[in-house]
Amino acid sequence: MLKTKLAAFGTGLALSLAGMSAVVAQTPAQPQTQKSAEEPERYGPFFYLPSQPSLLVYVGAVGANDMLNLKKALREHPTIATIILQNNGGGLVHIGLVVAEEVYERGLNTYIPKDSYCASACSFVFFAGRQRLAEGRLGVHQISAPELTGEQAQFGVSDIVATLPKYGVSADVLGIMFSTPSKEMYFFTPQEIAKYGINRTGNTQTAQNNPQQGAAKAPPSSPAPAPTQAPAQPQPSGLPPQGGPSGSAPAANPYMKKETAPAAISDEQKAINAAALMIQAGSGTNEEAMNFTREFYAANVDYFKKKRPKSEILADKQAYFARWPVRRFVVDQSSLKAKCKDQMCMVVGIYDYKVSSPERGKSATGTSNFTYVLDLRDRYRIVMEDSEVISR
C-alpha cells in the first residue's frame, strides 16, 4: 500500500536541492503479487525511504499529531534535508503553521512533485522551505479554521500576516490567498509561479513568462485535478533530464549559493496584510465570519465616527451577516496603503462586494472604501473603522 502511495513520483523523478544531490527514482506500482524490495518507514503521514536518506514524504493531510511525527522522523533520521509534499490537501491550520515553522527553523527544503498537489494548510509548509520547488499544483485560499476559536483563531490570523512574508512570500501571493473564499481553492499556473517568485531555486526558473489565462479554482474538498501540462521549457540546471539520471557528470548545483536572508517585513506591510484578511474573512459562512470578527476588534473602537464597545460592534456585524448570508468581498490589492507610528497603523483601501439573501430574494453589489487603524501591539486589533460606498 505504501508503495502505491509513493508510485505517483513516477520513473526517474529527480531532485537536487540545497547542496543535496539525492535522486528519487520510484518505479510504477507493481502488481500486488510482487512485494516491494523496500518498505518505507512510517511516521503518521510521513514516509522515509532508507534508500533515499535525504528525503521525507508528507502524504495526505495535515493532522493533529503531525508535529510530533515530524520531530520523531527528523530525530531518527538526521540526514533528512527535503520534505516531499505528496497529494496533501491541507487540514488543521494551526498545525500547518507550526510544522512550517519547524521546516523554516531547520532550513529544510520543500518540493511538490509533478502530478501531485499541496493545498491550503499544506501550502504553509511549502512556503517555509529554504529552497522550494513546485512542479505539481500549489493551492491557497482564505484561512478557515473551525478547530480554532477565540485567541487560537487570532493566533492563526496574526501568524499568517507576520510569518509568510518572512518565508519570502510576496504580497501578490498573500493577496490571492486572502481574496479566495475558504470554500474555493486557487491553484497557481506555472506562469504565476514564475511571475510571483514562488519557487526559490537560485537562478533557475521552472516556467516561462508568457501571458497566463488565470488559475483554476476548485472546491478544497475535492481531489485536486492533474496539473495542466506546461509548455516546453528548459530543464532547471542541477536537475537531471526528465527521463531520469543520464549517467553523465552532474551539472553545477545552483543551490549551493549562499542564501540572503529575507528582508524584515515592515509594520506597514503587516498592517496591509492584516486589513486585507479582515475584509476577506467576511466572505465565509456566518459562523466562520463571526469567529474571526470576534478577534478583530479592541475592547472599545471608534466605529463609524462614534465610540462603541466591542459588544455593540459584534451585534452590528452579526445582524449584517444574518441580513446578507451570501457574501463575496474582494480587495483591490493595488489600492492598499498604510502609515504606521509606534505600531499604530492606519490602512486605507477599496474593495468590491456582492451580497445576497436567497430567502428575501434580494442582492446588492458595489465598491466601497475603508479605513482601519490597527494596533499591532494588541494582536492587530481594530481600534478605528470607517467606510463608505463609492459606487453601486
From TrEMBL:
Superkingdom of the source species: Bacteria
Polar residues bias (residue ranges): 201-210
Signal peptide: 1-25
Listed Pro residues bias regions: 220-243
Annotated keywords: Signal
InterPro entries named among the record's database cross-references: ClpP/crotonase-like_dom_sf (IPR029045)
Annotated region described as Disordered, given as residue ranges: 201-254
Record protein name field: DUF4440 domain-containing protein
Organism: Achromobacter seleniivolatilans
